[in-house]
Amino acid sequence: MKDRILLLIPGLLLGILFAMFLVCKSPLQYIAVVIMCLCLLATAYFIRKMPKKKRIILLYALLLLVGYLLTAAFVSGTMGDIEAENITPGEEKDSTAVLLISPGEITEFRTEWAVYRINMMREVYPARTSWWGTPYKVYGIRRNLKKVDTDMFSSTNQQLYNKVKDALGEQVCVYNANLFGPPYIETVTREILQAGHKRIVVLENFLIQEPYKEAVDSRIFEAAKACNADIKLIHTFPLWNHDAVATLYENRIMEKIQENNPEKVGIIFVARGCSTKTLERYREAYKREKVFLNKIRENLVKNGYDSRKIKTAYLRYRDPEVKDMIEYLLDSGVSKLVIVAAGFETPCIDTEYVIPGIIDKTDIPEGIEVEYVGAWGGSDILVKALIDRFRIANID
User: Fold this and answer.
1) Roughly what angle, to the nearest 10 degrees, separates helices 2-23 and 28-49?
2) Following DSSP, what letter does each residue of 331-352 receive, concatenated?
3) What's this model's pTM, rounded to 2 decimal places?
4) SS3 assignment, position 106
5) Is the CB of residue 116 less than 8 Å from the CB of residue 82?
6) Which is nearest to 175 in space by CA: 248, 252, 231, 110?
7) What is the full DSSP assignment across 231-242?
8) What one-character-per-residue DSSP string does 264-328 give?
9) Binning pLDDT at 50, 70 and 90, where does residue 376 land?
């Protein structure tokens, strides 16, 4: 009995350590690996001495799973909070704060940032990630961040903020926050409250308003509640029906193509995609995304491009997938492919690693040119569209 207990303890510990290995930064990772190896050696030693090895191995595996799940629940439930001291709201001002909000991306690996991102993804896109998969997802984020230029994420965000701030002028108090990465909504909301503002115009750098608006509002109101403050929110319209944004993509595509035979060019708009549950809940919003993509398509057709070779693919959940659509257009006889991250507002892991990775892994014949158009970033055309949205917001 004593030997069995001594065997089961390493099983539980191994499950905990495996989950911690996935979420921790070095050197804690290396410490976890060493202890896991010791646990495995102890396991091998005790199992060799045991009769009825099959039963004890099954129990050991069960405890290993329990240890992993307990740690996953702890990580998902406690490690994604953005810590900030509660503040006393400043003296109330008549002026309105403008809060520019973009999707954003984490700019370096921190466990709490990665877990926050995963939890926000789960809130915005229901059914995307279960809590028990959090450690593995954290590991994937850490791995992928090593393969991209994270400085681009922060520099693009800062560039857009600076342009919007300059365009609105010194008389307007402009703040900047992101949904999935720093600067975080909770932190910036506290700054706004501390400055004495009681009204916020949420300047949405989003193609469609949902499924983001609910998550933005909940984060702002939770931060205000924690500070015992009342706050009023005014949202600007999203950008799906602003002609300038469609023109932005059209110009970027045309710059990449520079083709005398436009009928030989295949173009793929890559949209994020969403689960069936999310699509049913926000069906009208995703119809608007389709309207936006069709507007770009119509503009390209007017310039001589074949509508049959301008297609939409989805990064996740929905068909057709990007790889399948590339193969379809290659079979149609195109000489050039343009892959467009359409509707991705800011550079992120998806636009800088996942989509290029799919392109690289697809078997593309020699002689076929492939061009890639990333997120819309911080262009002057986008700034104009955002300022237009601000001007027509009902601020009074």
Assistant:
1) 160
2) HTT-SEEEEE-TT--S--HIII
3) 0.87
4) coil
5) yes
6) 231
7) -EEEEPP-STT-
8) GEEEEEEE----HHHHHHTHHHHHHHHHHHHHHHHHHHHTT--GGGEEEEESSSSSSBHHHHHHH
9) confident
- Only one residue has tokens 């892959």, namely 339
Tell me if 149 sits within 8 A of 188, measured CB to CB: no
> Percent of the chain beyond pLDDT 90?
41
> Residue 384 forms beta bridges with which residues?
none
Residue 64 clears pLDDT 60, i.e. is over it: yes
**pLDDT, tens digit, 9 for 90 and up, residues 309-328:** 999 999 888 889 999 999 99
> What CA–CA distance (Å, rounded) separates 269 from 313?
6
Which domains, and CATH codes, for the chain? 2-77 (no CATH), 97-240+382-391 (3.40.50.1400), 243-376 (3.40.50.1400)
Residues written for the chain: 396
Q: Write out the two tokens for 275.
A: 């689960």
Mean pLDDT of 97-116: 93
Query: b vs e for 34-72, b when ≥16 Cβ sit within 10 Å of the residue's Cβ?
Result: ebbeebeebbeebeeeeeeeeebeeebeebbeebbbebb
